[in-house]
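Recall the central idea of this unit: under ordinary conditions, the amino acid sequence of a chain determines the structure it adopts. In this exercise we apply that idea directly, starting from the sequence alone.
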Amino acid sequence: MVAVTVVVCAYTLDRWQDLVASVRSAAAQQPTPDELVLVVDHNPELLERASRELQPEIPGLEVIANERRKGLSGARNTALERASGEVVVFLDDDASASDGWLASLLEPYGRPDVLGVGGSAAPRWPTGLSRPATLPEGSHGRGVLDWVVGCTYEGQPLSQAPVRNLMGCNMSMRVRPALDAGGFSEDLGRVGRTPLGCEETELCIRMQQRRPDGRFLFEPSASVRHRVSPDRLTWSYLLHRGYAEGLSKATVAGQVGQDQALETERGYVARVLPGAVLRGLGRAVRGPGRRNGAEGAAAVVACLAATAAGYARGRVAAATGRTSFASRPALGVTAERSGA
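Accordingly, the structure predicted from this sequence is:
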């Protein structure tokens, strides 16, 4: 079994209970992590509380501050540079791992061509609420638009399979190749509540460009429950998140090329979304659930339109030199480390 560093990144006290549950779920895994690290993103109050309350509770937990640019990418790069394991695992601060999660993520690393392994994420809805019409259900219990809330969505593999990139809330990768590729771009990724992203997509593509023989795997049995806050169930969040996704994809396309940046998305748009719209319209006509069917179809169309608008805006900004994203790797190639 490879040596593993499990990392949780956190930025706000508002998620304290979620953060505690996340770290506890990671610490309770079998096998236990060789190293468990909480990276606090430029929040001295959270850093102090975690050091005072959480660190004494969980033996071996290391609480450190983000030493790089503010944001999730900077926090992850801090962890990459400090990790002692051959493999680093990232778990979101509002996600709780299931039993067997870590073992399922680590099993494929017995194959030397595996660069990274990602798991699945199921939504944990707010207390008293269920799946909203803005996130219509697809097949196999997955939502068509569940990527909006950081969860596994319809169209992703149902069993272990190669994928272009990993999903940020539940992913692992070999440390050495990630560092050699430059780490996470700190011009991408979430900062506070701003829902930009795709930093893991861009890094996975760069890692594979450096290692054409390498691959990333999706292992759905490595599952987590990802909390969905009430503010993410609204139409405004759906459109805002879609637009931000388009902006982020435009930045990735400028860095690694449009073909690789949109390879997965083309299949999703061509196969999954039309079926979702037709199912929603069918429900709207035949009932029961007419209203939910109509709203679900409208949500798919609106989210796709917002994403396309964000992508177009990002590409125009890049072409005119007005983009705020430099789209560059954040880390230089560091010194050789053992175990990689």
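The chain has ten helices and nine strands.
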